[in-house]
Amino acid sequence: xxxxxxxxxxxxxxxxRSALPADTKSxxxxxxxxxxxxxxxxxxxxxYVESLSNGDLAQYDPATDTIYITAEGxxxxxxxxxxxxxxxAKIINLYTTNKLSQLTEEQIRAVEQxxxxxxxxxxxxALLHPNAFEVVGKMHWFWRSFHVNAxxxxx
Length: 155
What we know:
Blueprint: H1 2-5, H2 9-19, H3 25-39, E1 45-48, E2 58-61, E3 66-69, H4 76-96, H5 105-128, H6 132-154
Parallel strand pairs: 1-3
Antiparallel strand pairs: 2-3
């Protein structure tokens, strides 16, 4: 809690990757993810807030590169979930701004897989959903806006 209140994302990740007990498969996975995120050297801000307007436990805002955590969201799983959003935004930003030399082959493939999934999902929805054109349009808007927000992340 003190690390979140002190805007110490590195400290949070350090705790999650080293001090969090690895007593379950889930926690072992969390430690592995925390280690990968620690290696990204994120500059993301992390802030404690009393509440969020939509009732979420936590949120990541890619436009400001800030994670907001409520008291109810102060769990390892929720905090790590939000940090994953920040890490994903950083990787997508590096990919979309053609800074591929700063990415691993695995990270490049991951972004390419995300693009493929978005395309496949839009095609499937176009066939199945009664308002297909509207839904597909929203999916393309979402993907483009995510790219823009990821771009804003380091602008």
